[in-house]
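Open question from group meeting: does this chain pack into something compact, or does most of it stay loose? Before anyone orders reagents, we agreed to write out a predicted structure and look at it together. Recording both the input and the output here so the notebook holds the full record.
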Amino acid sequence: MSSSSDVRERSIKEEVAMLASTLNDVQIRLQQVLTRLDAGEQVAETGESREEELEKELREAVNSAKWLRMQNAELEERLAQHKPELEQALSGREHLLRKLKHARKVIRDLLQERGDLSPRTQGFVTQEEIEEALDGDIRYDRDSESSSSSSSSEPPSDVDSDRTVRLTSAGVASPAQTFIGTPQVAHTSHLSPGPSAIRSDNGSIVSDPIRSPQTLIANQPASVSQRPSPNPSTSRSSPETWHIHFKKPPGSSILQEGPMDLAKLQICLRLDQDAVSKIVDAISPNC
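Structure tokens returned:
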């Protein structure tokens, strides 16, 4: 009897041990399942938070797109409102550029007509400075400039097209007008014929200004240089007298000013004595 009870007790203990081991395994598996459930919940929470962030960013992007559309529409409206003013400003700018180009061309032509009457002193600008100021930021079209300069060499037929500077308020003509021109003579009330006097084609007497710097000089405008060289097509020269003939009289020929005192002319043009001597030599019939 005792042996059978021992066997039964031993078997019961073994079954209890097996049950305990099984329960332990089940507990471990349950713990693993719980861990996995917790991890799944965390992933789900993370996904939800990420989804919320994405939805928030989407809403912000939609709002930004709406705001940008509104700004674009407002800018287009403002552009449409200012477009006439912009076109007017551009047109005015082009007009001012054309006027500036024309003014520079007129200044260039006047400088070419005036020539160099006196040596450069400290108070005068140099030719390089003049060219630099004229050429500035706008470059002339060389072809149009050459054609316009060649056409400007012909005598103008209209008074409005005359480009010669006239200082009418001071009674002073430009240097190119004062000393060289058509055979208009000085008033005889200011002149007295002498050994150095010369006689023009119409019989009027012109005094020699080299004898006295105070001699009154007639205003004789023309579109020629200070010391012109004889040209068979426009003029005839002789050892004593200049004979200038025009096919079309220039517009400056109707200007009646002078005679003018050489001293007053020297003051108005700020000429030094060397320049005055050169002018007198240039207009002298004996040179």
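Observations to bring back to the group:
The longest helix spans residues 2-114.
The longest strand covers residues 235-237.
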